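Two entries, shown back to back:
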Amino acid sequence: MRRKWPFLLLAFTLTVGLSVPGTQEVRASEGDSQPSIDRVGENLSLGTDGRSRLYPNDWYPGFKDEQGRFLHDFSYAGYRRGETELPKTAKNKRIDVTKSPYFADPSGNRDATQAIQKAIDAAVALGGGVVYLPKGTYQVNPQDGKDYSLNIPASRVVLKGDGMNKTHIYNAQQNMKNKDIIRIGNGDWKKTGISAKLRKSVTDPTVLLPVEDTSGFAVNDYVVISFETTPGFLRELGMQNKWSSRLGKVEPLFYRQIVGVDPENKTITLDIPTRYPMKLRDDITISQTADPIVEVGLEDFSIANIQNAKSGLGEDDFKVVGTAGYEADNAKAVNVIAVANRGFEILTPINQLAIQITTCYPRVLFWIVRRTSLWIM
């Protein structure tokens, strides 16, 4: 049975109501009314019991305060929507990166990038597998013409070490601007050409979408839900004077899997509720995509980047060529692209490594990827 535990650190919404999957009909409206953003932070002090007013002891999916504010139901987060235990890797099916024909150096003295990547590619060719990094330190670097050090481009591949204090991946390149240490993905979403427009505006979180036509859609399809950036959308966010350059651009809003199609009533049912109002004004489009990468894991190792020795970490130094801020701009430890149902169970958040690269601490720090810490389904 699903546990309904929201994460209180995640932002609440100002929209009214909540549709619980399978229990209520979707609320749809043609209007564009929405509570003002000026109400953010209003009357949000903790209750006498020290709990958030949006998360009382008797909280339930759909609970809202007198102003219509509520916490989203984030119980869908995690591997397979949090409904399945993380899988265990088979010890007898490992590809050891230190063995023939790979011979990755576990001392950290020589670049092991090509050896590890060769082992990953071998696992991909087999349809999946465990790429095993025994105890040691493995130096990696983005190779010529690449904007990443290591890439997992296909499903069912696990990168596994001997433990967070035993196996270390060490990226030795200082200038990591717009680069990743580990990339999971093989390009952006690939649309199939099958799409449908939203038939009615939907103001509340819901799994039920009213569409103009369900033709071509089927259960288990993956879809990207996109919107056009309109003046009304920017006004609602208070960003009309800051994001005007985005006017007219089509942006992805949600990535979901279809669990039900009703041609008669012209509805599509999603696996996870939407998180934001979707209005006809913004030309909401549901587009079928090719199947994404699934069942990828990172286990039992720590990861770090060398210090950037240059100065320049001011607010706008990311614009100044030759500064540490510029060379660390948009650097990522792990970049996940077009992968379904991302789930995290992390001792130290993955994105803190990106902070390590950006802030350039005076020594190398290894950020921990705990056993079964990142599994992507």
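entry 2 starts here
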Amino acid sequence: MTTRERRRPDPHDAGSGTAAPGWHSSGDPLFPATGRGALLRLNRGSGSNSGLTLVEVMIGIFIFSFALMPIMGLFGRGSMATQMTGDYLTAMQTCSSYLRSLSALPAVDLPIGNPVPLDREFGGSPTNRVKVPSKSVINATEFAHRLQVRYVTRNTTKKDLWFDFMVQPGQLASMTVYKQFLRLDFEVSWRSRHDGQSNRVRLFTYKADLE
């Protein structure tokens, strides 16, 4: 039995007329004809047709934009809800702030009216004055203010409201409030930038007229 020895030819041998298996006929030892070498040879070519056409790119952009539309809608609705909540909180803080300042004034400095003209200062003392505007603009939203001050007469048979005051050091006396009360109503209204509807917040407080 005769055994034939397969000899790997030298690729640099210029006299070799046929290419050895696994090697390119050009004799390039760095890029064999099969496997990774074939891929490298394809990448070396200058006439490669691989890539994306303009139509494919435009279709991909359209699909990506269409997929982002629900996400952008969620962001838009979230920002609108935040704006509406912020307007309500601003209106409530405005009402509460002005009511606390006005109720700290003497009853004689609070004019009776429905409504009371605004854009003026209330209070006779130079150190205790409250300026109330008729409108304000906060965070690009315009708020309109309205103040109402009126007397409310209590039932004299009710003794549920009383105050303690010190007549002399170490002695306390009680006084039941049975006179008239001042009711202060402060209202803030605005128009929503989301749907154009009118909104309003109204708070009120009572002030005893002890003078």
